[in-house]
Amino acid sequence: MNRPDLFNQIKKKDSYLCVGLDTDINKIPRHLLVHKDPIFEFNKQIIDATHDLCIAYKPNIAFYEALGPKGWESLQKTVEYIPKECFSIADAKRGDIGNTSSLYARAFFKEMNFDSITVAPYMGEDSVTPFLEFKDKWVILLAHTSNPGSSDFQVLRTDRGNLLYEDVILNSQKWSTPDNMMYVVGATHPDKMGGIRKLAPHHFFLVPGIGAQGGSLEEISKSGLNSECGLIVNSARTIIYASADKDFAAEARREAMKPPAKGCLAPGCSCPVALSAS
Amino acid sequence: MNRPDLFNQIKKKDSYLCVGLDTDINKIPRHLLVHKDPIFEFNKQIIDATHDLCIAYKPNIAFYEALGPKGWESLQKTVEYIPKECFSIADAKRGDIGNTSSLYARAFFKEMNFDSITVAPYMGEDSVTPFLEFKDKWVILLAHTSNPGSSDFQVLRTDRGNLLYEDVILNSQKWSTPDNMMYVVGATHPDKMGGIRKLAPHHFFLVPGIGAQGGSLEEISKSGLNSECGLIVNSARTIIYASADKDFAAEARREAMKPPAKGCLAPGCSCPVALSAS
Fold this sequence. Notes:
Two copies of one chain form a homodimer.
Chain A: H1 3-13, E1 17-21, H2 38-50, E2 56-59, H3 61-65, H4 69-81, E3 87-94, H5 98-111, E4 116-119, H6 125-132, E5 138-144, H7 164-172, E6 181-185, H8 190-199, E7 204-207, H9 217-224, E8 231-235, H10 237-240, H11 248-256, H12 272-277
Parallel strand pairs in A: 1-2, 1-8, 2-3, 3-4, 4-5, 5-6, 6-7, 7-8
Helix pairs in contact in A: 2-4, 2-11, 5-6, 8-9
């Protein structure tokens, strides 16, 4: 998917919501276990109930990998089922030496046809660029993540005068463009969002950390939105586990109808998302 | 596998060689393609030909993942086939927020019973510690990798006064011990090995970068060996693709008989590996 198509979808749906498919066999409603592939059945019903409200789906690959070869089959069926107009994100946090990253790129972009993949920056340029060689596919590079451990290394100040996550954002712009690169920026550091937006004014940010992790949608929207929205806000557990009963899909839909699926919350913001919501 | 068992094996076999199973369907001998699972058949014959010479096997997970669910079946069969006395390494470079890293740990340590997994440090403590909760299993944390991109972020000097990879080694020792943590230290930076050994005198280092990537075994052995060997030196392409014909297993064995499978090369070194080789 290219950038104009992504932005058009955001405007059309008045939404910048990504639904995280962190699908756990121990948490899905029990009545689904009679199905041959309960994980896919759960995802299918969640997608059916939410695809007009959200602009992206993000399967967290660990949840599928933990189930062995069967899990990969559920993942493959899920990505094929995601409607073509929705942006698909493989939350895989891969990254390895060049020839190995090429194989990961092939796995997620060709075998499974994801639009994008999350990548860890620690191994540098040649671990990231193989993913950038695919037209209309995206790298979503870890910058400032939402978890407690983000304070261990990401905020160290380096001899380039920046914090490490700032170096990651600045340096990676030498190998990529806002048309094939996004950054992971956690909602749990709202005070940092404005500064990060200045470093990458035109990029999309994938924002985890709303909901269960405690981030505020309003705060990150205020300083993170740009003229083409620029944010994709992930919500997983709050939506997909809104109910553990037979009404789980309807309850997921009810949760997904809240912002960011009903426009922008930034006070006085003039972005298209805000305008179309007002 | 625990540390004494690993060291005993090193002494018994007079070897610190790890064979990298970077098994590529496009590179294995053509006559294997008649088998139902050519990838596993190749690995099986390589393991049969080398298991008395090496102390570890390291499947590079990308090569299996690129093949979809079928690839995961080949991987599962491979890890089950690796002899119990050999140390198994899932070269996966995973790492995510705590609840997700727990799932990766389950996938590689419980579902597949690997002894160890490579983990990227960028997301910090809570992305690593879930892997440390498994008894006699190991994290092999990326420190100073062998690829060109290792100079992009890993060697930045931080406000703690260290290079970033040094911070990774020092900080991670607060959450782990030499009995459950190793570090990836590339052979392509031989001048750094001595300094890294000082930071982690008792840890094992997994050393990629010999052979195709240009690192020197002699140089890294000289400054990297400790009193319990402390090095696991990976060699993949040089060994497993020594021949593309029917003699591939015999040729792999011939390659695997060279150092580090025939003892230590460090001049004047008094480590058990060197002593048993002299």
